[in-house]
Design a protein that fits this description.
5 helices; Aminopeptidase; 7-stranded mixed beta sheet; alpha+beta; single chain
């Protein structure tokens, strides 16, 4: 498998991202107002992450790496490639609990729910009520071990 090239998704290619989600993470669905970063090779999109924009912060969401490429460092490489996006304004994420250490390695720190902005606090509660085990986190480039 060839090396991935990481970059922000061009708007004309937006339909491809939802096709990627449909194939490997049907619950994920990109929205046109999100900033989307991808990793691709000659076979097409192999990784993606979305940033939902709020007035004073952003939420990293929908991170997905092709199943054949997982545990090979592609997710970490994608987060490294979009460092400027992560640093543009405070960036939160709701990590599946089993991925908490992955996000910590990428520079995220674990938060208590009461440290989240109100819009995210109500959102994480709603997600948990639907059965998801999530950990709130905030990007802090000083804690990155990359």
């Amino acid at each position: 498998m060839s090396k991935l090239r990481f970059h922000q998704l061009e708007p004309l290619r937006f339909p491809l991202i939802n096709r990627f989600y449909k194939a490997y993470y049907p619950a994920g669905k990109a929205k046109k107002d999100e900033v989307i970063w991808i990793g691709e090779n000659t076979k097409g999109i192999q990784a993606c992450v979305r940033f939902k924009q709020f007035a004073d912060f952003q939420l990293l969401t929908g991170m997905l790496v092709h199943p054949d490429l997982r545990t090979q460092g592609q997710g970490a490489a994608l987060l490294t490639a979009c460092h400027a996006q992560l640093s543009a304004q405070p960036c939160y994420c709701f990590a599946f609990s089993y991925l908490e250490s992955f996000y910590q390695t990428a520079g995220f720190v674990t938060l208590d729910d009461n440290q989240l902005p109100e819009a995210l606090r109500t959102r994480i509660i709603r997600y948990r009520q639907s059965g998801k085990t999530l950990t709130p986190m905030l990007y802090d480039q000083r804690s990155s071990v990359n």
